[in-house]
Amino acid sequence: MMKYVFSFLLTLVVLIAVTGNGAAKEQELIGAGATFPYPLYSKMFDVYSKEYGVKVNYQAIGSGGGIRQLTNKTVDFGGSDAIMSEADLKEASAPILHIPTCAGAVVLTYNLPGNPQLKFTPDVIGDLFLGKIGKWNDRRLSDINPGVKLPDMSVTVVHRSDGSGTTFIFSDYLNKVSREWKEKIGAGTSLNWPAGLGGKGNPGVAGLVKQTPGSIGYVELIYALQNKMPYGMVKNKKGNFVTATLAATSKAADINLPEDMKVSLTDTDSSEGYPISGFTWILVYKDQGYGDRSEEKAKELVKLLWWMTHEGQKYTESLEYAPLSKKAVEKAEKLIKSISYKSNVIMK
Amino acid sequence: MNHSRAEVLMVRGATEAIRWRKPVFSESSFRKILAIAGVFVLLLLVAIFFSLVIASFPSIRNFGIRFLFSSTWDPVKSEFGAFPFLVGTLATSFLALVISVVFSIPISISLGEYSTQGSAATFIKSMIELLAGVPSVIYGFCGLFLLAPLVRTLEMKLGVAPYGVGIFTASLVLSIMIIPYSASIGREVISLVPSDLKEAALSLGATRFEVIRKIILPYAGSGIVAGILLSLGRALGETMAVTMVIGNSNFIPKSIFSPANTLASVIANEFTEATGSLYLASLIELGLVLFIVTTIINLIGKLIIRRMGVEDNEG
After folding, report:
1. Is-contact A165 A279, C-beta < 8 A?
2. Cα distance between residue A230 and residue A245, in whole Å
3. ∠ CA(A265), CA(A267), CA(A271), 5° rounding?
4. What does pLDDT average to in each consecutive run of 10 residues of chain A (348 residues)?
5. What is the pLDDT of residues B57-103, one digit of tens each?
6. How far apart are the first and last CA of chain B?
C-alpha cells in the first residue's frame, strides 16, 4: 500500500517539475509600483497576455516600493505617480526613463449639509489645508461661492496617512500656488501635515470625510465618481473654474511637454485643464543590457511599453483614467525608441 | 496514591511496549534536538535585533539619541523624531489595558470559578476565543464605521473637537482585541487553584467572595498579571486596526480624544512609499524602538510576576 502511495507521489512531483519547467520558458515580465494605475494595468496586462502570450506580473506596492525595487534591479519595470527625485536617480546605477501611461486628477471632496457644488481658488485651498481657515462661513469662501449658504461649522481637514502618489500630486500643486505652503510643508508622498486627520488610502480618507460633518479631503477622481461624493471646481492658472473630468485632465497635459516627460501637470497653463492633475509613469532603465538580462526580455518589454501607450490606451476611459494626449504619445514614442540593449537601439 | 488495578496494568503494558521497541531517538539526541530548537529561537531574536540596528544605522548616526525626543516627523525636509509616536503607542496601549482589565478579570473569575461547566459557560468561552480569531482589519472597520460615530456623539456632548477618531477610539478597539488573551489565561490559572485550599477556606466559614479575594486572587495573581502583560504586548504592536481609527496625526496628543499616531501605524502607513535611505532608515528605527519598548515592558512584567511569586511563598 505504502509503495503505491509513494510511487503516486513521485509521479506527481515529476509531473509538476516538468510542467513547471515548461511554464518558465514562456516570457514573463515583472513590475511593481504605484497603486493608482493598478486597475488599469491589470486590465491592460490581462488583455496583453491573451493577445501576445507574454505574462506581465504587476505588484501594486506603492510608488516608493516600485522605485526601490527598480533600483535593486529585482523587477523589469517600476510604476510611479511621482517623478524620481535627484537623490533617487543617483542611487540607481544607470539612467532611468519616465514613460507616461495615463493621467489622473485629484479632487477636493467635502461633507456639508446638502453638499452644495463649491468653488475653490488656489489660495483658499492652501489656507484650508494649512489650517488657517477655521470655519466654513469664512469670508474668503463665501466670496467665491456667491449664492451658496455656507454653514457656521468648523473645518476638519482629512489627508492621506499613508505615503501616496495622490499626496504627491496634491502637495506639488499647493507648492506651486502657495508660498507659505512651499516654505513650511513642501511636496512629497508623505508630509508633515500642519492640521487635521489622516485616513489610510483613498477609502480611509473617503470614510472619514463621509462621516465627519464639516470635513474636507482630497481623493483621486475615480474614487469620488465611484462613491458618488461631491467635489469642488478649482480655479486654474488662466482664471477659469474647472470641474475635474477625464477630458479636463487630458487637457491639462496640453502644454509644452519636455523631451524626458518628467513633467508635473499641476497648475497647468492650459486654459481648460484641471489644475490638480498628474501623469503616472512606468520607469525602466534606458539601457536594458544590465545583469544577466536576455535581449529577448528587453525586446518584450519595449513591445509592451509601445502597446500600452498605443493600443492599450483604449482601456483608459472605461476605467475612469484620462488617456494620454496626442502630444504626450508622441513624446512617449521617442522615449521608447531610445531604449537600448548594450548600447544598440532595440526598436528602429 | 490510590491507583486502580486497571491503571497499574495499563502502565505496566506501556512500559513493556517501550522496552521492546527499538528506540527511534536516543535520550541524548532527543535532548539535543530540544536544545537546538531553543537556541534557534534565541538566535532568531538576536538576528532580528541586529538586522534592525544595521538597517537603521544611517538614521542612528544622523540623529543619535535626539531621535527619541524630537517631535518633528517631516519626510520632505528629512527630519525625523519618534517622540509623538512613542507617546501615542504607550497612551493607546495602557488606556486599552485599563479598559480591558475591567472586563477580563470578571470574565476570568466567572468562567474559572463560578460557571466552570455547562453549555452557557462553554458558549461564552468559545465566543471569547472567537474574538481572538477575528482579523484586525475587521476590528478596524467596525471601529471606523460603528464606534467612531458613537465617540463623535460623545465628543460633541463633552464639547471637544468631534473627530470621532483618536486615542480614545483606538484604545476602545484595542481593549476589545486584547480581552480574549488576558481573559483566557486568567480563567486557566483560576481554575488551577487547588480545591483543597478553597475547601479549607470554606470550611472555616469564608463566603464565596472572601474565597475569591483571599485565596484565589493571591494564588492566581501572578498568572493573571502574566496574561495581562501578554495582552499588553499585543496592544503595543497592533497595527492595522489602530491605523484605521487613530487619526494619524504626527503631533504629541493633547488629550485622550486627540488624533495621534503609533510607532507601528507610522511604519505601516509610510513604508511602501518611502524613498531615500535616511527616510527608510528612520522608519526601520521606529521598528527598533518598538522592539526595545516591547522588550523592556516584558522584562518589567517578568519582574512583577517574580515578586508576586515570592510574596506568595512567604504568605
Report:
1. no
2. 13
3. 95
4. 57 52 63 89 94 92 86 92 86 90 94 93 95 92 92 92 88 94 90 90 88 92 88 94 92 88 90 93 92 88 94 91 90 92 83
5. 999 999 999 999 999 999 888 899 999 999 999 999 999 999 999 99
6. 28
CB contact under 8 A, A64 and B74: no
User: Is the Cβ of B71 closer than 8 Å to some Cβ of chain A?
Assistant: no
B76 interfaces chain A, CB cutoff of 8 Å: yes
Q: Average pLDDT, stretch B288-305?
A: 89
Task: Give the B window 110-139 contacts with A, CB below 8 Å.
Answer: none
Helix or strand holding residue A113 (H, E): none
CA distances from B154 to B150, B159, B170, B173, B191 (A): 6, 9, 15, 16, 39
Closest CA to A280 of A48, A90, A58: A58
Its sign, for the CA torsion B57, B62, B66, B72, is negative
| Chain A interface includes B163 (CB < 8 A) | yes
At residue B228, does pLDDT exceed 70?
A: yes
Q: How far apart are the first and last CA of chain A?
A: 64
- pLDDT at position B112 is 87
How far apart CA B222 and CA B189 sit, in angstroms, is: 9
B278 in A contact zone (CB under 8 Å): no
Cβ(B99)–Cβ(B171) under 8 Å?
Answer: yes
Contact call for B75 and A188, based on CB within 8 A: yes
pLDDT at B273: 78
Strand partners, A283: A78, A98
Contact B275 A186 (CB under 8 A): no
| A212 shares contact with chain B (CB less than 8 Å) | yes
ipTM over 0.85: no
DSSP string, A16-57: HHHHHHHHHHS-EEEEEE-STTHHHHHHHHHHHHHHH--EEE
What does residue A341 show for φ and ψ, rounded to 5 degrees? Answer: -125, 115
Chain A CB within 8 Å of residue B273 CB: yes
Q: A116: phi > 0 → left, psi -120 to 50 → alpha, else beta; which?
A: beta
Q: What is the pLDDT of residue A6?
A: 57
The answer to whether the Cβ–Cβ distance between B149 and A211 falls below 8 Å is yes
Report how far apart, in Å, the C-alpha atoms of A204 and of each of A173, A219, A223, A235 are: 22, 10, 11, 27
Q: Residue B313: what pLDDT?
A: 45
Q: Hey, what's the cell of A110?
A: 467635502
Residue of A nearest to B240 (CA): A200
